Amino acid sequence: MVPSPDGLNIRSYGDSAITGNGATFTPDLTPVYHLTDDDFISDDEPVRVRRSRDTDAYNHVQIEYINRYNQYNTETTEAKDQAKIEMFGLSTQDPVESHYFCEPKIASHAA
Fold it and tell me: Where on the tree of life does the source sit, at the highest rank (predicted)?
C-alpha cells in the first residue's frame, strides 16, 4: 500500500512472469475477492487507520544479536532518532532478542 492524495493505493509487485536460473515464475492474476459496500459493517468506514502519538513512540531501539565475527558471542546494537529525542526526550525500548541476525551491519540496519 502506498499513500496518495486520494487515500491509500494498493500496488502489486508480483504481476508479471519472470525467468531466471532455469526457473520461471508465472503469477496467478485471478482476483481472489470482489468487495462491495455490502461486505462491510454498515454506518462505518470500510478502512480505519489509527496512528499512535509521536510522544508514545520509542526513539532509542536496541537489538541483541549473535556476532559471527566475534565467535558468535551475543552483542547489542542500537539506533537513536536524535530529532525525536530532542523534541520529546529519550524513550528507550527494552532490548529485542534477535538471535537470527549474525552480521553486525544487518543487525544495525534492522535496529
Answer: Bacteria
Residues 48-89: tens digit of each pLDDT: 788 888 888 999 999 999 999 999 999 999 999 999 999 999
The beta-carbon contacts of 48-52 under 8 Å, at least 24 apart in sequence, are none
- For 12, the grid coordinates are 502489486
Burial class of 47 by CB neighbour count within 10 A (0 to 12, 13 to 18, 19+): exposed
Q: Please state the separation of Cα 91 from the chain's center in Å.
A: 20
pLDDT in tens, 16-29: 899 999 999 998 88
User: What pLDDT is attached to residue 66?
Assistant: 96
Stretch (H or E) spanning 87: helix 82-88
Q: Cell 508514545 sits at which residue?
A: 56
Q: Give the separation between CA 62 and CA 77, rounded to whole angstroms.
A: 6
